[in-house]
Amino acid sequence: MPGGGTVTAPGPARYVGVGAGRGVAEAEVLALVRATLAEAGGTVAALATVEAKAAEPGLVGAARRLGVALRTFSARELSGVRVPGGGSAVALDAVGTPSVAEAAALLAAGPGAQLLVGKRKSAPPEGPSRATCAVASATGHHGAERGRPSVIVVPSPPGSAPL
């Protein structure tokens, strides 16, 4: 573009809550996160889960591969978050809170967060689902921006080389 350039910035930040069964594979978590994020658009700002899963190798590895922090919240903190459907008895029995994925996504995104994609379960080629995932937005923005990168047009000074 003569006299100007286009810079593409990453899409809006998304906070991904992940619930996981013991021994979940990193590949299963990554596949689920990527598929769920495709529904919401944007980029992963952080993964979040319950403290009891802070050292789960599949979650730690997925966060490392994505280049983001793995944030954790206590079961008590997660229990205080209202989620669609009220949560799961399975999660309550396993880790002490009825919601991990949705509640963790909302807490990680902060006050005023909005759930963009509710809980999804993984669909591994072999065996049962061992992971759940949900996506929240820190700003509450959604709709037209979903799945679209932000584009900023920056004019170049006269006589400068194009970007």
Task: Give a description of the structure.
It is globular and about 65 Å long. Mean pLDDT is 85; it is low at 1-8 and 140-155. It has a single domain (4-140), classed as CobE/GbiG C-terminal domain (Nucleotidyltransferase, domain 5). The protein has helices spanning 26-40, 57-66, 75-79, 89-95, 101-109, and strands at 4-9, 13-20, 43-50, 69-73, 114-121, 131-137, 150-155. It starts with a strand and ends in an 8-residue tail after the last strand. Helix 1 (26-40) crosses helix 2. It has 163 residues and is an alpha/beta fold. 39% of the residues are buried. It contains 5 helices and 7 strands; from the N terminus they run ββαβαβαααβββ. Strands 4-3-2-6-5 form a 5-stranded mixed sheet. The protein has a two-stranded antiparallel sheet with strand order 1-7.
Give the topology:
Layout: E1 4-9, E2 13-20, H1 26-40, E3 43-50, H2 57-66, E4 69-73, H3 75-79, H4 89-95, H5 101-109, E5 114-121, E6 131-137, E7 150-155
Parallel strand pairs: 2-3, 3-4
Antiparallel strand pairs: 1-7, 2-6, 5-6
Domain CobE/GbiG C-terminal: 15-136
Region (Disordered): 120-163
GO biological process, one term: cobalamin biosynthetic process
